[in-house]
């Protein structure tokens, strides 16, 4: 028998440089557990339809489980000349149980076998990343008890805009992460369709039971078209996109907290366990975990772009180009998982510099919009109110004082509706209390949201 599973038609050996160039076992060995699970399910189905005897199916299952155990223990020797994890496992099975092992590949091709294993791996990884996202959400929600009532300056264009509760800020990231979890769930539904049994591209003449395999492996259904199944990598690219969105959200958070931890902002003290120092400057406490979280987003974005380019010109059905998909997906999943694991710890361990924040809260005229809306409540058109308050802000800026320190006469000169009650909406405390709309930073609305998130996350 040829050393190659496809070698019967060849009359010469493969150039060793080709073996090195085409192998994938150096990275797809990560699929070994999924390959064992899929092959056992396939063997049991072959026994159910009469291709294997029950004894043969048992021999195969026991042999595969032994091989899987050796791989997990690190005692299995992978061979580069056998190309990939699938052929390594199959050859080891044949070496152990003989011709019965040669029956396992009946009714399938490596094309649908690879796709099945990859879908199983992505499905498992989606569940793991969803758990990490949940942990990060819990870390933000658990901050809400510690930071109850703390007011922060909210920014647009990186300029101070309006006051917001710290808890409102933490829950903003819970919302982003929840959308990431929703995208993962949607992706999982499309991943969770069984391709096994569509064979190379046209299906098989053997009367297999694909639904039985789907049920055994927990797939929601079977891929309907064999040509589509052989060529499809939508599921992998969609997963890479969802990972990219998660990385983008983490990068935004990291950038913000890097700024907040500077002397210039002085909003936040990062936990030193997640910082590093300088080799020359003894005073430095550098936010390296946050910087690398921001930086590693670039590789996740790059992996998505590589996958999109990979499939852009491929004809139906399978092409060997598709071997290049796994390293990109593996790398993105590993990178995002590592970032998420550290993110939850950083969020839990950071401390707001409350005195520093509070001492500068009246800088930036955070109450100007509230004052404008106070005028609107007295029947002044929005554009007119905007201009009136803009002039008052300009006056306060020239006098280097907050709006609340302007004399009442100046307010009344600006508009008759601005009587002594105007001071009830000026200052960040009054501005925060004035908010009313659903989804706003109004304290009662935020409290409702905190309670809702605690109930949702069980924390």
UniProtKB/TrEMBL annotation:
<dbReference type="InterPro" id="IPR009049">
    <property type="entry name" value="Argininosuccinate_lyase"/>
</dbReference>
<keyword id="KW-0055">Arginine biosynthesis</keyword>
<keyword id="KW-0963">Cytoplasm</keyword>
<protein>
    <recommendedName>
        <fullName>Argininosuccinate lyase</fullName>
        <ecNumber>4.3.2.1</ecNumber>
    </recommendedName>
</protein>
<dbReference type="Pfam" id="PF14698">
    <property type="entry name" value="ASL_C2"/>
</dbReference>
<dbReference type="InterPro" id="IPR020557">
    <property type="entry name" value="Fumarate_lyase_CS"/>
</dbReference>
<keyword id="KW-0456">Lyase</keyword>
<dbReference type="GO" id="GO:0005829">
    <property type="term" value="C:cytosol"/>
</dbReference>
<comment type="pathway">
    <text>Amino-acid biosynthesis; L-arginine biosynthesis; L-arginine from L-ornithine and carbamoyl phosphate: step 3/3.</text>
</comment>
<dbReference type="InterPro" id="IPR029419">
    <property type="entry name" value="Arg_succ_lyase_C"/>
</dbReference>
<dbReference type="InterPro" id="IPR024083">
    <property type="entry name" value="Fumarase/histidase_N"/>
</dbReference>
<dbReference type="GO" id="GO:0004056">
    <property type="term" value="F:argininosuccinate lyase activity"/>
</dbReference>
<dbReference type="Pfam" id="PF00206">
    <property type="entry name" value="Lyase_1"/>
</dbReference>
<feature type="domain" description="Argininosuccinate lyase C-terminal">
    <location>
        <begin position="365"/>
        <end position="433"/>
    </location>
</feature>
<dbReference type="GO" id="GO:0042450">
    <property type="term" value="P:L-arginine biosynthetic process via ornithine"/>
</dbReference>
<dbReference type="InterPro" id="IPR000362">
    <property type="entry name" value="Fumarate_lyase_fam"/>
</dbReference>
<comment type="similarity">
    <text>Belongs to the lyase 1 family. Argininosuccinate lyase subfamily.</text>
</comment>
<keyword id="KW-0028">Amino-acid biosynthesis</keyword>
<dbReference type="InterPro" id="IPR022761">
    <property type="entry name" value="Fumarate_lyase_N"/>
</dbReference>
<feature type="domain" description="Fumarate lyase N-terminal">
    <location>
        <begin position="9"/>
        <end position="302"/>
    </location>
</feature>
<dbReference type="InterPro" id="IPR008948">
    <property type="entry name" value="L-Aspartase-like"/>
</dbReference>
